[in-house]
Amino acid sequence: MKFIKYALEGKLFFPFLVFISILSSFLLMANFSSTTMPKVKQRHTIEMKNFLVPPAKPVSPQTKSQKTTSQENDSSAADVQSLKMLYLQELVAQIERVKRYPEYEKRFNKEDKVTVQLTLERSGRIKKLEIVRPSRFSGFNKEATAAVRRALPFRAFPEPLPEEEITILFHMVFRLS
Questions:
Q1: Cβ 131 vs Cβ 116: under 8 Å
Q2: For the chain, which end, N or C, has fewer CB atoms within 10 Å of the first or last residue's CB respectively?
Q3: pTM above the 0.70 mark?
Q4: What CATH number did the domain enclosing 117 receive?
Q5: Residues 81 and 117 in one domain
Q6: CB–CB of 110/137 below 8 Å?
């Protein structure tokens, strides 16, 4: 209190001004730097990794009328697999389009990823949705499940896919760019 009194009387006015200006600039930088920063265009990405797909249904033994070459079988299996991958990529892209960056995490420049496991029925309905590896920040976890639900409805599986349900495991990455 005496310091302020002396400073106001003029005895320590200049050092007092320097002290106050340094303190105020430090406080402004520390407390408000994230809110006064210019807006940066943000890019959100979802990475697809480690698909967990149940094995296909067993194929019944072929009769003589159903003879096919092994080369045709390989190409049709590859076509089905590529069709499945295309379907899963479209599914994740559909989720990506509706994903939002949580406001609190954006304000404080938080970044993380959430690992989501999604099981779909043949009709495209969600059978099971769970977070396998959560983020440290609850906003990312909530947004991961909300984004999947906002992306509904998913289209039904393409006809050539033999599975009745597909389980996909993917990382939903929240990154400010």
A1: yes
A2: N
A3: no
A4: 3.30.2420.10
A5: yes
A6: yes
